[in-house]
Design a protein that fits this description.
Elements (H helix, E strand, L loop, with lengths): L2 H24 L10 H23 L5 H9 L8 H22 L1 H6 L3 H8 L8 H22 L3 E3 L5 E3 L5 H15 L9 H13 L15 H20 L1
Antiparallel strand pairs: 1-2
Helix pairs in contact: 1-2, 1-4, 1-6, 2-8, 3-4, 3-7, 3-10, 4-9, 7-8, 7-10, 9-10
Length: 243
């Protein structure tokens, strides 16, 4: 397992489970139809946990270009490795969203609303307002990244005074942060807080022969890409200023 493969696999699992809950919640004739916002935010948090557990030991489980760029800006990750991680994250996101479509194909066909079909792949604002929408993505990602910076050096004592890493347990606090961001700040834009999570599946939506699909929302697509990057860099600057 290389860091590249770990990021591809971890991000694919993240999007498979995250996109899967959206499909299960909003597409017609699913067992989970109408589950609501609590199920969506909870499952996205658990999706992050799964991705981090799998990829963490090999790549650090960024699974998010904003995390990769933020850590590099904060001096905790080499800039030379950023392109490799970004490529892996976008590839993984596209694989994961493609698998969601394969699994829920019958339910895509049973759903007439093209907007709901697109929502399985990517985010849209509840109320379109470019300024407030990008502020939402900036703030959500800022909260995620400022926590990630402090999690990065987390350790526990094993009872003998020896410090050991958190291992898979370290994925739990990250999952809780994502869950909290979704519950508190996700109501405006659907909290992409991850450029690969939004742009990768949006590209897949544009390419797939989805019956009755609408456009892929390209006029909005820049916000869930630029907003998270700005939020991550701001978190890095604050972290550096405080430490």
């Amino acid at each position: 397992m290389t860091p590249f493969i770990a990021e591809v696999l971890g991000t694919a699992l993240l999007i498979l489970l995250g996109g899967g809950i959206v499909a299960n919640d909003i597409l017609n004739k699913t067992k989970g139809n109408g589950g609501g916002w609590m199920t969506i935010t909870t499952a996205w948090g658990l999706a992050v946990f799964v991705g981090v557990v799998v990829a963490g030991p090999y790549s650090g489980a960024h699974l998010n270009p904003a995390v990769t760029i933020g850590l590099a800006a904060g001096g905790l990750f080499p800039w030379a490795d950023v392109p490799t991680y970004l490529a892996a994250e976008f590839i993984g996101a596209m694989i994961g969203s493609s698998l969601v479509y394969v699994m829920y194909k019958d339910h895509f066909d049973a759903t007439e609303d093209g907007g709901l079909k697109r929502a399985v792949f990517c985010t849209d604002p509840a109320i379109p307002n470019n300024f407030r929408n990008i502020v939402s993505e900036i703030l959500g990602t800022f909260v995620l990244l400022i926590c990630v910076f402090y999690f990065s050096d987390a350790e526990i004592a094993d009872g003998t005074g020896t410090k050991v890493g958190l291992g898979s347990i370290g994925a739990i606090p990250v999952a809780f942060v994502v869950w909290g961001v979704g519950l508190s700040l996700g109501g405006t834009t659907g909290y992409a807080i991850n450029p690969a999570r939004d742009l990768g599946p949006r590209i897949v939506h544009a390419l797939l022969p989805i019956k009755g699909k609408t456009d892929s929302g390209w006029s909005y697509a820049w916000i869930p890409v630029l907003g998270p990057i700005i939020g991550a860099v701001l978190a890095a600057f604050l972290f550096l200023a405080l430490n």
